[in-house]
Design a protein that fits this description.
Elements: H1 2-34, E1 40-45, E2 50-53, H2 55-61, H3 65-68, H4 73-76, H5 82-87, E3 92-98, E4 110-119, E5 125-134, H6 135-160, H7 177-190, H8 206-210
Antiparallel strand pairs: 1-2, 1-5, 3-4, 4-5
Length: 211
């Protein structure tokens, strides 16, 4: 019986270590994501104190994470709604929040924030979390996408200049027998990979034939 008890304890200990290992890995994944994204992340406990905050949000306020963890959220954000989110069981998606002047390190005051309560299986609310999108970063992203779109449109137009539909032998009608024979000869050579020399005066269509 004593041996059985020891074996049971060893099995429970191994299961506990495995569970702790999984929790540590999950926490590492969560921490990596939160400190990599450009958006701000904040978690507040039922007592109104900061449970967690990521690097982007700390940089936004010009504070260090270790200095604000465990401190009242109202000390960092006087007009916070995180406590109200818990008290009233509210969920807000992409609502605009305006910080007081001088509160943020960058001077950027308006952000889009999604807030929601966090509940246990019993239904008890024990925290609230917020994901914040900074307008400055969003504007830069939109500008970058617009520039990319313009560049793509430019290259699309450039490619259209060399499209088969625009430069095909069928799109070159002519009543000249000599020109027709030149087209037939060009069509034959177009099927090979051999280098071809096109000669002729300016304006006779050498670029069109080459395409």
């Amino acid at each position: 019986m004593f041996q059985t008890t020891i074996e049971t304890l060893l099995q429970e200990n191994a299961a506990l270590k495995d569970r702790v290992n999984k929790l540590e890995r999950s926490d590492r994944i969560f921490r990596t994501i939160m400190n990599t994204i450009a958006d701000g992340f904040l978690a507040v406990g039922r007592d109104g104190n900061i449970l967690d905050i990521n690097t982007s949000y700390c940089n936004y306020f010009g504070v260090k994470r270790q200095d604000v963890l465990g401190t009242p959220i109202r000390k960092l954000i006087p007009n916070t709604k995180m406590i109200e989110i818990m008290d009233k069981d509210l969920t807000e998606l992409d609502s605009v929040h305006v910080f007081k002047k001088g509160l943020t390190a960058s001077g950027e005051r308006k952000v889009a924030v999604s807030r929601m309560p966090v509940t246990l299986e019993s239904g008890e609310i024990f925290a609230s979390v917020a994901l914040v999108k900074f307008s400055g970063y969003t504007n830069k992203l939109v500008q970058s996408l617009q520039e990319m779109s313009s560049e793509i449109e430019y290259y699309r137009k450039e490619l259209s200049r060399y499209s088969i539909s625009q430069y095909s032998f069928a799109s070159l009608p002519t009543s000249s027998e000599v020109y027709r024979q030149a087209k037939q000869l060009a069509e034959r050579f177009a099927k090979s990979d051999l280098p071809i020399l096109l000669q002729g005066e300016t304006g006779v269509g050498k670029e069109v034939f080459a395409n």
